[in-house]
Amino acid sequence: MKARLLLTGCLLFNSLLLQANERWFEIEMIIFERTPEGQLQEQFPEQVTPIRLGRNIDLLTPRFNPSILPLVLSLESCTPDAVSTNANSPFTTSWQAPARLLCQQETQPVAWQRHSLFPEVLLNTQAPWPTSIAPVISGSGEFQGVPYLAEASAFSLTEVADRLRRQRQHQLLLHTVWRQAPVTERRAIPSRWFAGQNFSQGFDYWGQAKLATASSRASLAMNNSPLPTAATTDVLEQIASRRQQLAAGVTLDQPVTAASETNPNQNQANLPNEVWQLDGLFKLHLDHYLFVNTDFNLRRLVGDKLQSINVKQSRRVISGEIHYLDHPKLGIVLQIRRFSPTAEPVADAAE
């Protein structure tokens, strides 16, 4: 018994020692879009460059699309009963508003309708995605031993972000600070970041409109053009999406859109399910020097089409210095600072 306790104590001491010797950094990143068209002559490719997620560190999805399963399961069923035993119809014929505001209102199968011997729960367990995300994103700042969002007081480039926000030709998309311990390039796992407007309701991942908008239909009517039927529009949209996938090197046996019915978080092609104005990966690795690799897709609504511009850059950086990754359409301001995990910050009151 004493030997076992001694071994456990040694292992705990070694883990604490490794954690104390681990190098941590605080990364502050500002991403903004250049909005003026004006004198820019550069032409961007029309096809979408897919950014496959694979294994990544996602600090935003739990924040903006959290699981609400514990909350849903704690609610009582609404009255009247969701399913009727009437032979003519398995559903309630005279539904009325429940007396309680917080209760399960989704129809559930009765015992004889289930496909399994065990109870099934058919409920929406994820909160809906927002239509847009505010640029500034902070966390509690509580040290977790894994990459995590820093508290609001950790922001050092607020003045830079404010200047960009006040300039008419710039749109601030993302300003955040997170902390992580960098590793070698071979072991490094990129972090995923998305921001801005959510175009998922109107467009698929390949930039094709899901449904004809009211404005486009009104435009066709004013020009005395025949309105396409729903079936024709759907076929044309599928063809356009297939062409985009072929141009991007995606095989035809993969899903047409980014949505997946079997798994809402990841599809066969490892593509995002939501179509954000900004979406991509940021990788930090340490090989004698600090290096960053960025790969972002910027979505822009041009007329009735969704244009995608891929911005991929690599840079060696020096801790403490402010670096600027320039692009005709997208700018990234970056500062990486040393951080000591022993100085755990107090949770932000606004969080």
What does this structure look like?
- It is a single chain.
- The protein is an alpha+beta fold.
- It has one domain (22-65, 131-339).
- Helices cover 19% and strands 26% of the residues.
- It is built from six helices and twelve strands.
- The chain has helices spanning 2-21, 61-64, 69-73, 158-166, 214-222, 230-247, and strands at 24-34, 57-58, 132-133, 136-137, 148-149, 170-180, 191-198, 276-287, 289-302, 305-317, 322-325, 330-339.
- Strands 1, 4, 5, 6, 11 and 12 form a six-stranded mixed β-sheet that branches. Strands 2, 3, 7, 8, 9 and 10 form a six-stranded mixed β-sheet that branches.
- β8 (276-287) and β9 (289-302) form a beta hairpin.
- Residues 11-20, 213-218, 254-268 and 345-351 have low confidence and may be disordered.
Share of residues in helices: 10-25%
Number of helices: 6
How many individual β-strands? Answer: 12
The tally of domains stands at: 1
Tell me the overall shape. Answer: globular
Oligomer: single chain
- N-to-C CA distance: 45 Å
Low-confidence runs of at least 5 consecutive residues: 11-20, 213-218, 254-268, 345-351
Query: Biggest β-sheet: count, sense, barrel?
Result: 6 strands, mixed
Structural class by secondary-structure content: alpha+beta
- Mean residue pLDDT: 76
How large a portion of the residues is in β-strands, by DSSP E?
Answer: 25-35%
Order of helices and strands: HEEHHEEEHEEHHEEEEE
The rounded Rg comes to: 25 Å
